[in-house]
Amino acid sequence: xxxxxxxxxxxxxxxxxxxxxxxxxxxNHLESPQGARVRMEGRGEVxxxxxxxxxxxxxxxxxxAAGVEALHAYGAGTASVRFICGTFTVHRELEVxxxxxxxxxxxxxxxxxxxxxxxxxxTIVEAGDFVISDELNHASIIDxxxxxxxxxxxxxxxxxxxxxxxxxxxxxxxxxxxRRLIWTDGVFSMEGSIARLPEILQLARDExxxxxxxxxxxxxxxxxxxxxxxxxxxxxxxxxxxxxxLGKALGGAAGGFIAGPAAVVDMMTQRSRPQLFSxxxxxxxxASALAAVEVAEREPERVQRLRDNARYFREAIVEAGxxxxxxxxxxxxxxxxxxxxxxxxxxxxLGEGVFVTGFxxxxxPQGQARVRxxxxxxxxxDDLDFAVAAFKRVGAKLGVI
Length: 401
Ligand SMILES: *Cc1c(COP(=O)(O)O)cnc(C)c1O
Description:
Structural class: alpha/beta
Radius of gyration: 22 Å
Number of strands: 15
Helix content: 40-55%
Number of helices: 15
Number of domains: 2
CATH architecture of the largest domain: 3-Layer(aba) Sandwich
Strand order of the largest sheet: 3-11-10-9-6-4-5
Bound molecules: pyridoxal-5'-phosphate
Distance between the termini: 51 Å
Largest sheet: 7 strands, mixed
CATH topology of the largest domain: Aspartate Aminotransferase, domain 2
């Protein structure tokens, strides 16, 4: 029995409500590594269309071996923060590789992209600064801005998704700010849409603003060699600051980073609180991520395969009668309308051996509930055909095609 029974009763009631509202999240347990197909406890093998394992590196032999070797070479970790008790050489190697990969002078790793975003905003703004954020930006960006506002007293605003007119207007209305910062995702995860980066950069140039881009769904994914949204638009090296994750295309373990000019990145080492007061990435994870970057650089054909797979799936699913949101990324959201329909579709697909998650209100707008498919370079045409066939059976059963 817990000390405070009212606390427990309160949370039991909240959970019961989530279940009654059919929005309670059930965790599916996997018994195998992440891959095109995984073994799910109680279900057996399923094709997975809901992981961010874009390049298929989560279980790549080189990525796994690098982690094992680093465990032997460095042990479990430094047992403190980097500036106090030393930092491993593998962290420096990883950060050099990350900067090279995304086209910046320098990079600094964090235990997650969430942490990196939180570190960045609060460190680079001061009272009198203005921060403006796309309305569909990731939760970690939103919270990083809330934190910066609370502790640094900057002012903030939100602009309509990819609406440059709204962004321009709000930037100009805050011309008096000491510094103005534009925060955008590179790829928006629920839509699979790409930020209008060249226009955002031009506006920032005109207005003397700073551009910060979270490229978590684009690193290893967009651009001919997977260097991200900047490569996709031919503006590599032009974004002021980039943050991204190591938990998606680059191995899928954990970790994130800030990349940009050396002085700004160095200031993150000097001042950002998650860096100063929290341990570094475990060396095993850093080494796996480093190997993932090296494989991505050595095998750009993975990026091409990812793109071909995404195109193939998109075309097949349209042919089957579904209406995915249009786009060029491996995120293929299939709109089904009501939240209940998306959840039911996801459940039925799992019954057919396809693991893909449904998202409803309030994660996405009312009436635009969706099943979000994510394609990987690891998928074979067989995997994708299997998934499309399951979609057809389930779509027919639900009357959505
Ligand atoms: C996934 C994601 C994150 C969080 O990444 P972690 O490294 O798991 O914290 C942050 N930002 C965006 C845009 C993401 O898609």
